[in-house]
Each structure stands twice: as C-alpha cells, then as structure tokens.
C-alpha cells in the first residue's frame, strides 16, 4: 500500500509516516513495489515488506515426527523437511541436537546461510504438560543445547495454530477468536486483539458426567470423546474388537470416516462424535462469546471437511441463540501446515514487539 493509505490505518500524519517509512527502508524491512496512478498529482509509490530481510524457521513437533519449515519474511514457504523423531521429549538435549541437525539440512537444501535466519520457532505438542518438562523446554534452557547463534522461540502447538489463523488464516481481522485443535487429543486457544492464550486443559473439561475414563485419570473429558484416540477406542469397543493397535492414527480415522457409507457401527460412532464435538464447541462459545470458532488440527480438518454442516447444527442447539447468532464456526484457513507457520511467526512477533531485528537477542 502507499504512504497515503497508511495514514487512516495508523492515525499518523504524513510527516511521521514519511520519517518512519524512511527508517524501515534503511533497515531493509520495507521496499518500494511500483507505483499506482493517483486522482491528481504524482503517482503514489507502493510499499511492501521486503522478503529478503531475513528468513524464518518453524518447527512442528508431534508425538512421533518433526517437521521443519523455512519461510521468507512475507511468510512465503521456501522449503520443508519432515522426519521421524528419534529422541523422546524427556531427552531435551538429544531432541535439541536433532532439531539443529534437521534445520541445517534444510538450510543447505535451500541454499540459505544460518546467519540469514532471524530465528527459529518451535511448537510443543500437548503431551509436554508437566511443569518440570515445560521448564526444560523454555527458550533460555533450550537455546544453548541447540548450538545455534540465532534466537529460539517456543510455543505450544495450539497457540501456534491460533497465531497462524489469526494472522494469516480464517481469524484474520477478527478481534475475538477461539481456535480448536483436534488431533490425537483436543486443545483450544483464545485470541483477543492479537494476544494468544491457551484455554488451559479444555480437553479435560467434563463433557459427560461419570462418562468414559480419560487418560488424565478423570471421566467424561472432551478429549475422551473427540480426540482421535478416544474416537478409535470407542469404535473398537462398539464392534467388540481389541483396543486399536499401534499405527498411523490419521490413516485409521480416514478409513473410519470413509466406512460410514456402508458400516452402521461406523456411521453411529461418527454421528455421536459430531454431537460431542458440537456440544463441546457450544460450551466454549457460551463461556467466551467469540466472533468466530475455527476448527483446526489434522483430525479437526478431516471431520470439518465432511461434517461441518452437521457440526454447526449441533453447536446451534447447544448455544444460547442470542450468543450463537453473533458467532460463526469455520474450518481453519491456514492449511495443514498452520502449526509450522505459527511457529515461524513467533519470530515475527518478536520482531514486532521489539521493533528491531530479533537477532539482537542472540548477542
């Protein structure tokens, strides 16, 4: 956009905008991007973020795999790498070395130098919940273990999903949004005026009093009904089968959803799951009154793509109408790599918060 368009958005006068833009251009954060004809006088010069200012790395950790993503400053993807995890989450040192090894392989493949990285953001899975383990994964403890000279930022996976959706996805432009991540378990985060906060242990709030046992030790938790592990366990029990064997949960859920057309137990199980999910989302809406609820996570996207109309009907039936009519329920718009995008965006947040190159934090 032009300097003239920046005025109404920032509330600043032409002189202040001109001075600030000059500083941003000198630092190479902003560059000129052509001209557009004006209604009178000289053509207006357009400005844009300079993608060559530096690169961003985002790391998405799941239960058994890790994915690295490399982006330029406009969040355009440059390259990606995915591997099976060799280290466990309790072996923080081993995992840190694994993250560094994969990052350097990615940089080498993309022909990008390590000093050109503004920072690396890491998304922790929901399983890293113990306070002592979370402390081990703090940036101050983790960075020396990586051997990297760049800043390292750490966020929970659902928070990174929420950051990606609020900045680049379905939540962009909305002041109050809830992002719900459905995978092996269930998690949620609230975004208010750009600030992201995890809705602590929403997956372990009670959905069914005295209901199914949950791995947390309680009963009737949201996660026991809408998390993929809970869904698969319920299906096997309804069919009188042995507990689900080890294997790729995404493939098992996809097969279950496909079988609803010719398997009554599968159809009943999925219909119940849609009901539980809709009721759980309705509870969130009643408590937090967001403008939008965004369904994300690999399992959330699978369920939402096939059953969003049914999910919305259940949500409407479990939410006061005067609240529901001001809320929409939608699929995530940042795509299946949202957690990785959000992890990379942690560096952008540091840049904006600091008002300067975050690499200064590594000195």
Structural summary, described in words:
With 363 residues, the protein is of the alpha/beta class. The protein is built from 13 helices and 12 strands. The strands form 3 sheets. It has a 5-stranded mixed β-sheet with strand order 5-4-3-6-7. A 5-stranded mixed β-sheet has the order 10-9-8-11-12, with helices on both faces. The longest helix has 25 residues, at 264-288. It starts with a helix and ends in a 9-residue tail after the last helix. 37% of the residues are buried. The model has no long low-confidence stretch (mean pLDDT 90).
For the record, give the distance between the C-alpha atoms at the N and C termini, rounded to a whole number. 34 Å
Strand content: 15-25%
Q: Give the CA-based shape.
A: globular
H-E string:
HHEEEEEHEHHEHEEEHHHHEHHEH
| Largest beta sheet: strand ordering | 5-4-3-6-7
Whole-angstrom Rg: 23 Å
Which structural class best describes the helix and strand composition?
alpha/beta
Bin the helical content.
40-55%
Q: Total strand count, please?
A: 12
> What is the residue-mean pLDDT, rounded to a whole number?
90
Number of helices: 13
Can you summarize the main beta sheet?
5 strands, mixed
Low-confidence stretches: none
């Amino acid at each position: 956009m032009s300097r003239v368009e920046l005025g109404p958005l920032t509330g600043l006068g032409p002189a202040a905008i001109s001075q600030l833009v000059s500083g941003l251009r000198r630092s190479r954060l902003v560059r000129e991007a052509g001209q557009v004809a004006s209604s009178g006088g000289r053509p207006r010069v357009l400005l844009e973020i300079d993608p060559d200012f530096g690169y961003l790395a985002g790391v998405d950790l799941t239960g058994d795999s890790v994915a690295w993503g490399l982006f330029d400053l406009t969040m355009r993807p440059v390259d990606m790498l995915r591997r099976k995890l060799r280290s466990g989450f309790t072996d923080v040192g081993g995992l840190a070395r694994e993250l560094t090894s994969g990052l350097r392989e990615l940089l080498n493949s993309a022909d990008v130098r390590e000093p050109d990285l503004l920072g690396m953001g890491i998304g922790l899975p929901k399983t890293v919940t113990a306070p002592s383990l979370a402390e081990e994964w703090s940036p101050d403890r983790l960075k020396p273990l990586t051997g990297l000279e760049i800043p390292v930022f750490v966020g929970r996976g659902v928070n990174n999903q929420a950051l990606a959706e609020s900045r680049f996805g379905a939540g962009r432009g909305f002041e109050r949004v809830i992002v719900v991540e459905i995978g092996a378990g269930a998690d949620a985060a609230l975004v208010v005026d750009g600030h992201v906060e995890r809705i602590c242990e929403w997956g372990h709030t009670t959905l069914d009093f005295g209901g199914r046992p949950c791995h947390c030790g309680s009963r009737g938790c949201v996660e026991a009904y809408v998390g993929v592990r809970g869904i698969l366990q319920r299906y096997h029990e309804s069919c009188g089968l042995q507990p689900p064997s080890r294997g790729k949960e995404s493939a098992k859920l996809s097969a279950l959803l496909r079988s609803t057309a010719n398997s009554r137990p599968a159809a009943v199980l999925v219909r119940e799951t849609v009901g539980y999910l809709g009721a759980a989302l309705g509870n969130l809406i009643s408590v937090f009154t967001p403008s939008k609820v965004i369904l994300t996570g690999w399992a959330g996207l699978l369920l939402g793509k096939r059953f969003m109309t049914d999910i919305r009907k259940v949500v409407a039936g479990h939410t006061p109408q005067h609240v529901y009519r001001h809320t929409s329920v939608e699929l995530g718009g940042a795509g299946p790599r949202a957690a990785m995008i959000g992890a990379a965006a942690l560096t952008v947040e540091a840049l904006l918060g600091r008002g300067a190159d975050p690499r200064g934090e590594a000195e």
